[in-house]
Amino acid sequence: MSNYKKMLKQLLETPLLKEKPSTLENVQSLNRALSYPTSTYSTIHVAGTNGKGSVSMKIAKALEYCGYRVGLYTSPHIHSPRERICINSEIISEEEMVCGAEKLFNVCQKLELNLSFFEYMTFLAFEFFCEKRVDVAVIETGLGGRLDATNILCPILTIITSISKEHIQFLGQNLEKIAFEKAGILKPKVPVVLGPRARFQSIYKHACALHCPVCYVSKFFHFFDEENSEIAKNALEQLKTDFILSQKAINQALILRPSCRFEICGDIIFDVAHNPEAIFYLLQALHYFFPKRSLRFVVGFSKDKDYESCLELIAPVAIHIHLVQGSSRLVSTNELSFALKDAPSSFYTCHQSIEEGVKAAFSFAFQANELTVVCGSFYIMQEAKSVAYPIKAFDLNMQGAPIAFS
């Protein structure tokens, strides 16, 4: 087994997240022990239920196009954990990740700290960006904000893209409580950009208490990527006080999207919509761009998602739904089918693997000239893509795809 595979195995054996953390004491201790790595570069901190990955990428690409050395930290990943950490669109190498992880393992052992997978990955990114001397890093939160491992930053700008119900066991049962948790990333006098679905009283109150200038996007859009672009555009306007940004670079960056965000490949669409709000905006985009096409869905959801509500939204517009299961992180097809118990059994098919479900969907869709939509968990996308394009080797580097419709 290679050093990288050994390291990855050790990382993946740690819990993905901590059970409802009450403080940031662990990460603050590690931050001190590492001599505050993020103090060596400027940071932009991005939170929100949906859209934060796309907004983060657009901002990072605009800065990169203007000649800056830019770190980008996002989650989760589709192909490899290495995707989460990149500089100027190049992901961290296996060797660099092994070296950084070994250092973290040693420091944590000395400090007797038990970190989660996300906490390890966060500090891998922070240390890597410090070592490689980036000018600026765009950092996406993992979950919430106030108690997120990334919230040791002292950013020059904060962004909250949207607020909707997700991770209620961690963040609270209503939108204002969730907004309060997201608002925890605000820092005294640091400007904050709010998306049109992030304008909540608890955020405004917190911003006022901390004397944070507030810039908000008020317009609503037909296509969610247009909304993300407008949020990123407003953020980049704020950043013009710290960076020299050309309008050409901004325009080039705003048309890009990360992989599997309404990614159109012929008659197949890949989208990581995995909560009710994201599914709603995916369906809105499908209706907007493909109003006359019949839609066949391949879906799989992680266990912590509200898959019942997602399926409730998908069912009225689908010709057929292919339910798939895979890793232990995913809901079983038995549970998914129970959420469709009121639908006729001919309306959905349960598959024991992602490969089986995708092949079946593609076959039926091809014969009937339907559009296939693969959506849900990040963790079904790699296998789904490999089935769709077995010959194509997907580049792990961050290669933002422009909007294109066929």
From TrEMBL:
> Which residue numbers delimit the Mur ligase C-terminal domain?
261-378
Segments passing through the bilayer = none
Single GO MF annotation:
tetrahydrofolylpolyglutamate synthase activity
Q: Which domain of life is it from?
A: Bacteria
Q: Which Pfam families match?
A: Mur_ligase_C, Mur_ligase_M
Q: Where is the Mur ligase central domain?
A: 46-187
Q: Which UniProt keywords apply?
A: ATP-binding, Folate biosynthesis, Ligase, Magnesium, Metal-binding, Nucleotide-binding
Any idea what this protein is called? Answer: Dihydrofolate synthase/folylpolyglutamate synthase
Organism of this sequence: Candidatus Rhabdochlamydia oedothoracis
